[in-house]
Amino acid sequence: MGRFIEGSDRRERLLLPDCIDDYVIADSPVRVVDMFVDELDLSELGFGAAAATGRPNYHPATMLKLYIYGYLNQVQSSRRLEREAGRNVECMWLTGKLAPDFKTIADFRRNHGAAIQAACRRFVLVCRNLGLIAGGTVAVDGSRLRAVNARDRNFTPVTIRHRMEQVDASIQRYLGMLDTADRQEGEAAEWRTARLTTTRLDALRRQMRDLEAMEQAVAATPDRQISLSDPDARAMASAGGGTGLVGYNLQAAGDADTHIVVAHEVINLGHDRTSLASMGKQARDATGADTLIVLADRGYFSGPEVLACEKDGVVAICPKPLTQAPRPRGASASRTSSTSRTLIPIAAPPAKP
């Protein structure tokens, strides 16, 4: 076949097996993760101690290392983390060849949410002490996260009304089919009428009654929305028509120089207008800056939020939303459109002395 580099036989026996540490390079990020977690006081952060009875649990340090590894490598699913723990050499080195199942990984993430957030804050503090975070300017933005809740299992007054209209149309269509069957003769017509009456039509009527009960339940909720699979998830619209999702809104503030996320928060609102002051205060506390400049897009524009930022020592720079002013009679379209595209910052950084 020519001159090619040939590998060793996978069935060859080794007298001295290779050390797994040799497969992890010296400047691998997993070595930083291992050192960082080993230096943490996990009990102080809120991680639970070992159970006195029953089957021994995995050490919180091992689970936290696996969780951080998934964050660094964009592996969010617990099932994918389980596969990585059994086939990835760096992950094997990090966990000591332990491979927890996906249910254990998911339970650890759900039961130790506050402790994981405390560990993230400790990491930001370490980065600040090392001089990796300047602390002068941060950028805030939101990301939509899809929840484990289908759109059909999310109910709002608008969706309930649309589904009722669809059910009404289906009932009218089946009633028309019954009229057509009544005008026919023979046993086939009788069987078809009975099948339509006892199955499809009754199922549609039951669905209509369920929607009416759900409509009353939605009206009794504070935000007039119910999600069956994930109760905390909410419907959120997106830029494309009809492409909304049911999920969460992740708010993140990143340092403008190093792009390190210094603060984050998960909300279930479909907009960002009420998150500017909260994210600015969290970012200022995390960076330790006396005065912090926050950059945001027009989705964060809100007068009360800007005032709250000024009270907390945060300077918010954000463009005003694009609004279409009333066009005077006889005015040209180009002049009106140019006025509507003007961007005005709501605040400016203080001038240096």
UniProtKB/TrEMBL annotation:
Residue ranges of domain Transposase InsH N-terminal in the record: 20-110
Keyword Coiled coil applies: yes
Biased composition annotated in UniProt, kind: Low complexity: 325-342
Superkingdom field: Bacteria
Keywords: Coiled coil
InterPro entries: Transposase_InsH_N (IPR008490)
Segments for region (Disordered): 322-353
Keyword Coiled coil: yes
Coiled coil feature spans: 194-221
PANTHER family attached to this UniProt entry: TRANSPOSASE, TRANSPOSASE DDE DOMAIN-CONTAINING PROTEIN
Protein name, per record: Transposase
Organism: Sphingomonas xinjiangensis
